[in-house]
Backbone:
């Protein structure tokens, strides 16, 4: 008797819950319906547990949660929307996690230990590239005897092709971590190597990795680290090496196609098994906003995938939007945004060119910066512009800018420190200042530096979390809040699931 | 008489060309406006070549103390500790040769520099500094 009552009670409750869901006053609201559709889509998700043939690791340097948010709004506003509801390509991926980026000695990490974590599966100290954290920075002797195996080597041993692409120098920390080991990230050519140290410089390690067949495609900037100081390159700039080695000639002697400009790049023969070395600038490539005469990140992505995918065993491709970070250091949000959109274009190109059933695509960042956001801004406030008043009778802002206690307008985004500081060095060497009057037109100027608080020559990184987004085989291994080195472990499992 | 008339007519002839007008005294030229996107000289730069022009920009940290030479940048140039030991100069800079050594102005304070605009490749014989654009015999002040 009791049991029947209980069961009918439960059944009654279930029925009444269903009845309540359908009778909710908000059921017809588009937000509600979209929410329900999201739940339905997630319920339908099936984890992909097949072996990953290809792995593509996208890193936008410096693109933490806040910076990613700003690029979302910028891209959305560029497309004519209000920005907040825009979905960047990686934000449509089904799997994501928060990532803790601290290094073993840095509450605030730099790009070296963070990229190392992703490529070797272990965390290490700031400034070290794929060297265990038991070694001190610059300790050459200790560094040459350690040996962390790199994901590029694991992939290569499986018969896969490997590529590394960046808009920074190809010898800079993030791309370097794909193929090199160094007790100091600054040792990009031989000039920084101390007397008596047997560690090879980063540029020569790239050539070694191309010679041994681990690296098949490498593209980015940094030409000067491959040429002797006695040689001038196609732009009339001289190299930096003092050991007499011309690594571009050495690459050519290995049979690599070497390209140095957009003209050469478009004439590349892809898919004929010849390796490719692209060095498009003496130092870093240009910001996307200023780009001329060199390929975009999306174009380099396309060429790399076309070249690497001729390998039946698949490939590992690491792609970096290297200069989101540099524009953040410069305090210039507009160039951050445009490089962020270029990053998104590269991701979209990779999605278009690969089969999601067999390609694990990971999108992440190495660390965040000291970016910060103000309120209370109405919808449609330009993300690089002024914080505009919320419209209490509508959706889009009122058109009037908000003002602070000093009666002056302020931008949506700012920085905690850097070159945009309102505290400026005076003639007597003290620092002081006043916020200037600011129009929206001035704020959205591409060369504008958003206001910052603490005066510094260069804005800093921060230890704040970044995101990782993934789709494809074993992408569902990402979830929750993870240490950054777990990214290696997901890739490692995906190519060889046991 | 005829010659004087011709000379008087010359400025009018110059102004009637399709190139942009010279920079006015109260409207300084922005440094970025001297260059096209592919870093060739803009029409504005070509119009002002050889003429005393005022350019707005920022004083990059001086190469050499007590020097009359400094680099003008279009935006404050951040010195990124991880970017490069021995930071490369951006391509769109301007080399200033001032009349006299003045106090160094902080890198993020807007300044106006007035000097004779020179276009074309040159390497400073003393500093070895390569430049494409220069302002010579220059004076400068906070904007």
Residues:
């Amino acid at each position: 008797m009791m049991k029947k009552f209980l069961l009918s009670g439960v059944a009654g409750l279930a029925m009444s819950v269903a009845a309540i869901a359908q009778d909710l006053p908000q059921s017809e609201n588009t937000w509600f319906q979209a929410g329900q559709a999201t739940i339905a889509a997630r319920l339908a998700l099936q984890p992909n547990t097949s072996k990953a043939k290809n792995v593509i690791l996208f890193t936008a340097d410096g693109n933490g949660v806040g910076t990613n948010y700003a690029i979302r709004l910028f891209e959305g506003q560029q497309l004519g929307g209000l920005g907040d509801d825009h979905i960047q390509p990686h934000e449509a991926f089904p799997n994501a996690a928060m990532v803790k980026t601290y290094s073993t000695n840095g509450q605030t990490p730099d790009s070296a230990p963070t990229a190392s974590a992703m490529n070797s599966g272990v965390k290490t100290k700031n400034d070290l590239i794929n060297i265990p954290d038991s070694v001190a920075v610059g300790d050459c002797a200790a560094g040459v005897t350690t040996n962390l195996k790199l994901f590029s080597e694991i992939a290569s041993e499986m018969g896969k092709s490997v590529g590394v692409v960046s808009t920074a120098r190809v010898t800079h920390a993030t791309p370097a971590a794909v193929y090199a080991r160094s007790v100091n990230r600054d040792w990009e050519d031989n000039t920084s190597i101390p007397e008596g140290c047997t560690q090879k410089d980063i540029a020569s390690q790239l050539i070694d990795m191309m010679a041994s067949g681990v690296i098949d495609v490498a593209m980015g900037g940094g030409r000067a680290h491959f040429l002797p100081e006695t040689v001038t390159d196609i732009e009339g700039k001289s190299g930096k090496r003092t050991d007499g080695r011309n690594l571009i000639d050495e690459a050519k002697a290995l049979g690599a196609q070497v390209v140095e400009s957009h003209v050469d790049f478009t004439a590349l023969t892809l898919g004929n098994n010849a390796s490719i070395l692209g060095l498009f600038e003496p130092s870093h490539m240009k910001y996307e906003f200023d780009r001329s005469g060199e390929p975009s990140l999306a174009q380099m992505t396309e060429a790399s995938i076309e070249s690497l995918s001729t390998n039946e065993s698949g490939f590992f491709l690491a792609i970096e939007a290297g200069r989101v970070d540099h524009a953040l250091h410069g305090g210039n949000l507009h160039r951050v945004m445009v490089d962020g959109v270029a990053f998104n274009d590269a991701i979209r190109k990779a999605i278009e060119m690969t089969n999601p059933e067999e390609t694990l695509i990971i999108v992440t960042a190495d660390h965040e910066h000291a970016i910060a956001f103000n309120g209370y801004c109405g919808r449609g406030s330009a993300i690089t512009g002024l914080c505009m008043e919320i419209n209490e009778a509508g959706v889009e802002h009122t058109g009037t800018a908000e003002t602070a206690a000093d009666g002056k307008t302020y931008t949506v985004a700012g920085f905690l420190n850097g070159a945009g500081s309102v505290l400026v060095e005076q003639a007597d060497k003290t620092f002081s200042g006043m916020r200037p009057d600011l129009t929206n037109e001035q704020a959205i100027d591409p060369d504008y530096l958003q206001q910052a608080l603490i005066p510094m020559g260069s804005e800093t990184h921060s230890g704040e979390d970044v995101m990782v987004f993934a789709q494809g085989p074993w992408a569902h291994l990402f979830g929750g809040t993870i240490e950054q080195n777990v990214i290696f472990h997901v890739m490692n499992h995906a190519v060889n699931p046991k | 008489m005829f010659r004087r008339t011709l000379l008087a007519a010359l400025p009018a002839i110059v102004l009637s060309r399709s190139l942009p007008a010279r920079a006015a005294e109260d409207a300084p030229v922005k440094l970025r406006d001297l260059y096209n996107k592919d870093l060739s000289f803009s029409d504005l730069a070509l119009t002002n070549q050889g003429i005393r022009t005022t350019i707005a920009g920022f004083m990059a940290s001086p190469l050499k103390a007590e020097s009359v030479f400094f680099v003008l940048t279009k935006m404050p140039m951040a010195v990124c500790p991880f970017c490069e030991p021995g930071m490369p100069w951006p391509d769109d800079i301007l080399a200033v040769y001032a009349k006299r050594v003045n106090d160094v102005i902080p890198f993020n304070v807007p300044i106006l520099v007035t000097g004779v605009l020179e276009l074309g490749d040159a390497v400073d014989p003393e500093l070895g500094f390569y430049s494409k654009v220069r302002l010579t015999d220059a004076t400068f002040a906070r904007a």
In short: Chain B touches chain A at residues 32, 37-39, 74-85, 88, 103, 106-109 (CB under 8 Å). The radius of gyration of chain B is 17 Å.
